[in-house]
Specification:
Number of helices of chain B: 1
Helix content of chain A: 40-55%
Strand content of chain A: 15-25%
Structural class of chain A: alpha/beta
Radius of gyration of chain A: 23 Å
Helix content of chain B: over 70%
Structural class of chain B: mainly alpha
Number of strands of chain B: 0
Number of helices of chain A: 16
Largest sheet of chain A: 7 strands, parallel
Number of strands of chain A: 15
Order of helices and strands of chain B: H
Largest interface: A-B, 19 and 14 residues
Oligomer: heterodimer
Distance between the termini of chain B: 172 Å
Chain lengths: 429, 141
Amino acid sequence: MKVLVLSNLYPPDFIGGYELCCRQMVDGLLGRGHQVRVLTTVPRTPCPAVEHVARELELVNCYDPFDVLHNRPVTRKVTAAKAALVSAHNVHVLLDNLRRFQPDVVYLWNLFGLGGLGLVGCLEYIGAPWVWYLGDCVPRMLCSIGEDLLPGLASQFGRYVRGSFMPVSERVIHEIEAAGVELQGDINTSPNWVLGRQPEPRKRYFRPGERLRIVSSGQMGRHKGIHLLVEAAAVLRARGFENFHIDLYGKVTDPSVEPLPRQHGVTDLVTFRGMCPQEELVDRYARHEYDVFAFPTWKREPFGCAPLEAAAYGTVMVVSESCGIGEWFVDGVHCLKTARTGEAFADVLAGILEGKIDLKPVGRRASAVIWRDFHLDVLLPEIETALARAQGQSRSPAGTAEEAYRLALLAEKLTRALVQENASFAEAA
Amino acid sequence: MNWGILEQNCHRGLISMLGRLLATIVRGPVRMIKAAGRRVERRLARRISERYADEIVQFAALNHAMHELNTNVTARLDRQEGFHWDHVALARRLASLEDHVNRLLDQANVDGHGEARNVVRLALTETLAATTALGQLEQAG
């Protein structure tokens, strides 16, 4: 099958699991003999050219905090509109790649920052079949300018966009549909995955009296609950526990979390270890350097690849009771779930430290289940089926590629004019 | 002309002097009235607060209770939501296990079916052979 993959970022550029999973999926599809071409944006990190990766798209600067903070409000609005709604340049590049590569199906990933709504609209217009991997509520983001949802666009999305969606959890669908964006077509929930070969079952688990090694990784911000982990460490210390340590891997995206260990007097118990390549982190899990992966993330976490990778090697997941990965693993069977508070996390960790909670059965079961049902090799046939099904669904084009590009140009100009006029009215008011 | 200006200035000065005199005379009583007003206000406020103190305390307690209730309800709802997702996870695990069991059963059926078919084939062959032999015997008389 010829598959054109569309993603806003592609490693070495990434923000989180979405982009990393994209690369893994591409490698998986290539490994199974498919012809894959990745269409992504010009790299932010210098990297060697790869044959199957075309870095031709333009990323609208919606992720750069400097631009977001220092631009004038109207410029910010115009940028946000272009990032979500339409970029004629990117529509042109897409059409050009469709013409040159002639894919059987287009595999969509994160389209935010590309004028994604325009790209989906273009595919719909020319009748190209597509499957959309939803690792976040991207359709909702594409119907918004910044934080403001455009209800008109949201309702029209459900009317005109019909295809195959593969969300990573039910909550992603709920979040999208709660905003008034209806997903029409096939919806097949499919989880994230792990890679590699199944290791020997872990033999040594934490025993009471030893030092409990806790880890967490991802963006170091409050939305991931890093402040709650620091609070939990302080609560544990107040209860007289000292035989534990929390290692935090990842970029500090929220400057307010870095001084927290000092403020809570737990600098010796909590360490920010900075960015760590995914492979190195997986090696650490494989060497059983940690006993517990703490994940006090927010409710709208679509999935959470990091705890899955850790649990594959017997590092027990302690997750907040409502988050994406919680939809796939059972509390007390494959993971430990608790309320999203520092106190509640401290309770669970205290239970482990006191020996009331045995990590071995939980870790063993989770590891077995992950290697059996959450390996990319197991999920790939399902994805191939979805791609083949989408390819088989005939769609009649509404017009030609040239017309699609003309419409994109018109839409881009119209968007800019409307946003600017709206901002002028707001300023005058 | 000059006399006119002088006259006007004197007139203005006189009016201003009279105004200041009047203000000085009036200031004292106004202050007294203001002070009295404030005293009345304070007394009234004290009376009201004394009279409604119990209610105010009750309101504060109610507000506190409402806040606590709200926190508890939120926590319960969160727990309920968490339970719901755990239930979803349980259902998914069960479905996955069911798939595995079905696959194993199908595999077992295929294996079992293969053996059975051999036996049936043999029986059929034997039956066919026997029937043919019987037919030949009959034809031979």
